[in-house]
Write a structure and sequence with these properties.
With 616 residues, this protein is of the alpha/beta class. The chain folds into 3 domains: 86 residues, 2-Layer Sandwich (Gyrase A, domain 2); 230 residues, Rossmann fold; 186 residues, Isoleucyl-tRNA Synthetase, Domain 1 (Orthogonal Bundle). Helix content is 52%, strand content 11%. The chain has 22 helices and 13 strands. It has a 4-stranded antiparallel beta sheet. β7 and β8 form a beta hairpin. The chain is globular, with a radius of gyration of 29 Å. The two termini are 41 Å apart. 45% of the residues are buried. Bound molecules: arginine. The site of arginine (ARG) has 9 residues, from α13 and β10.
Length: 616
């Protein structure tokens, strides 16, 4: 896929203009990259065309001469106000203000200038990925919010989006937990997720490992993830395992009592999961659950199809897929006939590409599962399962996220060395956000002064959650980052609350203007000062940023943009009086710039899953 060009984007406007001018100046057929870059210093213009140097050299022309010839081909006027050759052959470009003003006005619609990408695009986002009987930990934070924002972005572009929560709700670990709960005589109706979590862990820990299975995995050259999987699947005393296997077989064959217990386990888990997801303000509900159990009856068929096509081959009683470029095979059926995490993922790919017709399938999953996805994707490509019914090659994409670290740069743990539950972490963030908001409201001049405790708490919740989500999304998906609430919650710097605060300040200016009955909604945009122009240029970049963020699956690009926009706005506001302006046209134009900035901040934050309170 390539980035579509947005017609309002200053870069693409110049790109087109200069591409044509260069071809004419050279008198050659061809498509020459005009190398347009934003100017480092607005004193020298808004953008630069840097193409002359490289093109001149290979043709034995002086770069400045070529730059002159290019200049002669660009029509001054609407798009470009002035141009100037500098240094060895740079062309400094100042854009036409009238054109900029009109372009900004044309973006002031429901979509803020973001073009829909047309019907028929489908994406599946594999997100959240919790496991039944296990608490949500901080790793699930990333799988949930990165996935949710990628889903939001594609929705904004008009795609059909399937958010799929690939719950770990099937297999031996679950059967072991169920067996352990039965043996302890626990009342399933009364269970909490904490208690389930303990049963799960105890079931895994009770007894020695299945050494043979592990040795086999190592002999097969399996990756660390596969070994870990076998470890968890096979750990436990042999008799526990055989009990659990019996449970699994009975469950598989539909034993009503077991099925009821299994459902109770899922309900108990999901109640708490949705509680936590509720705090996170994400668009994931029960309708997005499609757990491993959904594929349970398809696994035998998956393996059969692999065997029939000769791609799945026998190895010591197990079925594996081999690859030319790596030692480790992909194990799809164990020698005891059991299926694996990978088998389920193969079935899921077939479902997502063939049934849901996804041209993109994005897996937001821990970086440690890199080998697993590489093998599973390549295995399905061998089978041609990556082709949609329309013959489009689906973009199967593992988006591997890095770890959340404590201040000691080790994986985040509580003081007693336990993993933080996600819930505890979010509650702390909310408490800190609320404290901050309540403290600020004590100031007589604060717009929040005099609000009720409930109102302040609801703003505080939005601030605390914004702090956590923005810090996560802005640090880049693949990177590890340090969880430092002090830094995340600050109202200054590149933080969620800073951007929310910028939004709230603009909101209060606009509501003052409304209170004074000032009209700006249809004002002509004037960009006479450098600061107005910079703000205008920043506004114009928004649609392109959204396209690129979605296409590259990099929410941090949107974060960086929003931060720049908030800063550019703040310079504008310092230099350009808005309400205190006597010139009605200038005042209205500036209010319209404020209003568009506010709408973009709110829209961009919403795409990141972050609320934007109008008072803070
Ligand atoms: N439940 C899995 C885990 O905890 C994550 C699921 C990821 N999605 C997938 N299609 N494998 O590791």
């Amino acid at each position: 896929m390539s980035t579509q060009q947005i017609k309002q984007d200053p870069l693409s406007i110049l790109d087109n203009t200069f591409r044509a001018a260069i071809a004419k100046a050279l008198g050659e057929e061809g498509n020459f990259d005009p190398v347009i870059r934003a100017a480092q210093n607005p004193k020298f213009g808004d953008y630069q065309c840097n193409a002359a140097m490289a093109l001149a050299k290979s043709r034995g022309i002086k770069p400045r001469d070529l730059a002159e010839r290019i200049l002669a081909q660009v029509e001054l006027g609407d798009v470009v106000e002035s141009m100037e050759i500098a240094g060895p052959g740079f062309i400094n470009i100042t854009l036409g203000r009238a054109m900029l003003g009109r372009t900004i006005e044309s973006m002031d619609d429901d979509r803020l200038g973001i073009p829909p990408q047309g019907d028929g695009h489908v994406i599946t986002v594999d997100l959240c990925g919790v496991n039944v009987a296990k608490q949500m930990h901080v790793g699930h934070l990333r799988a949930t919010i990165i996935g949710d924002s990628i889903a939001n972005l594609h929705e904004r572009l008009g795609w059909t989006v399937h958010r799929e929560n690939h719950l770990g709700d099937w297999g031996l670990p679950i059967a072991m937990t169920m067996t352990a709960l039965r043996n302890s005589g626990a009342d399933l109706g009364q269970l909490t997720l904490d208690a389930l979590n303990v049963a799960y862990r105890d079931a895994q820990l009770s007894g020695r490992s299945d050494v043979r299975g592990l040795e086999g995995a190592i002999a097969h050259g399996c990756g660390p993830h596969r070994i870990a999987e076998l470890e968890t699947q096979n750990e436990g005393a042999i008799e526990n395992i055989s009990d659990a296997k019996e449970t699994l077989i009975a469950l598989q064959s539909g034993d009503p009592e077991l099925v009821a217990e299994w459902n109770a386990l899922i309900d108990c888990t999901m109640r708490e999961v949705f509680d936590t997801l509720g705090l996170l303000n994400v668009n994931i509900g029960p309708e997005n659950n499609r757990g491993e159990s959904f594929y349970k009856d398809k696994l035998a068929g998956v393996v059969e199809t692999f065997i029939e096509s000769g791609i799945g081959v026998e190895d010591n009683g197990a079925i594996v897929v081999r690859f030319e470029d790596r030692e480790r095979p992909l194990l799809i059926r164990k020698s005891d006939g059991g299926f694996l995490y990978a088998t389920t993922d193969l079935a899921a790919i077939r479902h997502r590409v063939h049934e849901l017709k996804s041209e993109r399938v994005v897996y937001v999953v821990d970086a440690r599962q890199k080998d697993h996805f590489k093998d599973v994707f390549d295995g399905s490509r061998k089978m041609g399962w990556d082709k949609t019914p329309d013959g489009i090659e689906s973009d199967l994409h593992h988006l591997p996220f890095g770890s959340v670290l404590g201040r000691d740069k080790k994986p985040l743990k509580t003081r007693s060395g336990e993993n933080f539950t996600l819930r505890a972490l979010l509650e702390e963030a909310i408490e800190r956000g609320t404290g901050e908001v309540i403290a600020r409201a004590e100031d007589f001049n604060a717009p929040t002064h005099g609000m009720t405790r409930d109102e302040l708490e609801s703003i505080g919740r939005a601030v605390g959650i914004a702090a956590v989500k923005y810090a996560d999304l802005s640090s880049g998906v693949t990177r590890d980052y340090i969880f430092d609430l002090d830094r995340m919650i600050a109202f200054e710097g590149n933080t969620g609350p800073y951007i929310q605060y910028a939004h709230a300040r603009i909101s209060s200016i606009l509501s003052k203007a409304e209170g004074e009955d000032i009209k700006w909604q249809n004002a002509g945009i004037q960009l006479d000062t450098a600061e107005e122009k910079q703000l205008g240029l920043a506004i114009m970049r928004y649609p392109q940023v959204i396209l690129e963020t979605a296409e590259q699956l990099e929410p941090h690009r949107l974060c960086t943009y929003l931060y720049d926009l908030a800063n550019t706005y703040s310079s504008f506001y310092q230099c350009c009086p808005v309400l205190r302006n006597d010139d009605e046209d200038v005042r209205a134009s500036r209010l319209r710039l404020c209003s568009m900035t506010r709408r973009i901040l709110a829209d961009g934050l919403a795409l990141l899953g972050i609320e934007s309170p109008s008072r803070m």
